[in-house]
Automatic annotation (TrEMBL):
GO cellular component, one term: mitochondrion
Pathway: Amine and polyamine biosynthesis; carnitine biosynthesis
Catalysed reaction equations from the record: 4-(trimethylamino)butanoate + 2-oxoglutarate + O2 = carnitine + succinate + CO2
GO biological process: carnitine biosynthetic process
The protein's name: gamma-butyrobetaine dioxygenase
Keywords of this entry: Carnitine biosynthesis, Dioxygenase, Iron, Metal-binding, Oxidoreductase
Organism taxonomic ancestry: Eukaryota, Metazoa, Chordata, Craniata, Vertebrata
The keyword Oxidoreductase appears for this protein: yes
Entry EC no(s): 1.14.11.1
Protein family per UniProt: Belongs to the gamma-BBH/TMLD family.
Cytoplasm in keyword set: no
Top-level division of the source organism's lineage: Eukaryota
Cofactor: L-ascorbate; Fe(2+)
Amino acid sequence: MWMSTFACFALKRSTSSMACQALRACRKPGLLPSCLTSVQFCGQHTLGSASVPVARHSVRHVRALDEERLMEVEWEDGRHSLYPFTWLRDNCQCPMCTLHSAQARKLLMSDVDIHTGVDVVEVTSDNKVSIVWPNQHTSVFDADWLKKRCFSPAARQAVREELFLNKRYYWDSKLRLPTANYQEVLHDDKAALAWLLALRRVGIVYLKGAPAEQGQVARLAERIGYLRLTFYGHTWQVQDKHMANNVAYTSGRLSLHTDYPALHFAPGVQFLHCINQAMEGGMSEVVDGFHMAKQLQREDPEAFHTLTSLHVDFTDTGTDYCDFMLQSKKRIIDVDAEGRVVRINYNNATRDSVLDLPLHQVQPFYRALKAFVDLMNRPENMVTYTMEPGDIVTFDNWRLLHGRRNYISRPDKLRHLEGAYLDWDEVMSRLRILRRLVQEHQKHCQT
Ligand SMILES: [Zn+2]
């Protein structure tokens, strides 16, 4: 397996020692794209928190703060953690309260006294924390389990990052596409983990060495879990088609877009496998939509505000897997409650002529959209590449915008890409499992 320098670095930071073996064959170490060297890789943007701590924590002392209804744990290193009584009672790990075979809570909310006190809290001889509740029910908590669930802002941030890997590395035209080998990703857990980590952090990973025949994107999806069925089928064939039901199925240029904004829940991840390339043209283009949104916010805050607040109509009508008539309303730049950009929804082909805006917002909307598109089309922001038969590009469809230059269509040698969608929930699920497998394997090797 070989990864670009960029991914090597990202992986080293994110999975610490385990990545060392995974990245045994980094190419040209030390050549990070300059856009990524300082800001995104330094200071608070480190990936260290993505690793699962292996150190065992031990409890020095525990006491109940009855007034505040909190339990205080003092750790061996002198640090303290606070846990609300209500939360502790709610999360009792005994077999009456927890179904261990499902790792799920059996205790019903209706049976939880959210004003409970405690009778006794103590450290057990095997360094667990034991609580006796007023009704004499007893809960015993493992020290590591408690430590991981500490309520301090730093601890919560670390767990959030470990679970969701929300820190992203922004890039521009200087990005060297993280690249891995298709067969290794299919058969080697460390290679698969490296692939998914880079897919999450960078948003795009290029896989080389797949057979140039249909069925490979489905195999790749099965490596993760299952693919996402849409109206274009389980997988779909990007070719120049007669009476095309999608602009992608022509030989024309496709401007930068995300796929399927006409669905309220657009597919999170996209795979595109090149089976046949055009003799002339057909070059691919990608930009980092999150980076572009941030840049727009800096350069043109009014346009950013417009695109993060107005809902725009998208539509898609036709017949493929079955007949469809989709309508959606989306903000072109989606932000979460904290104002962080979480999704880009933009495809000029399926942006509806129905525009459900008051008259006075129409021109400002066009101005904002034009500013965003102009920004994305700047050469310094765009990465271009030409796929060869056997190449598969895997990318974050909530983040990247992708396009294609027009090409000369030849009926005797049709340009042919096969595509498939997945969702981030399934991809992240596989990533977490692979991370645990690789870590367990490493622990096993060390002992
Ligand atoms: Zn219990």
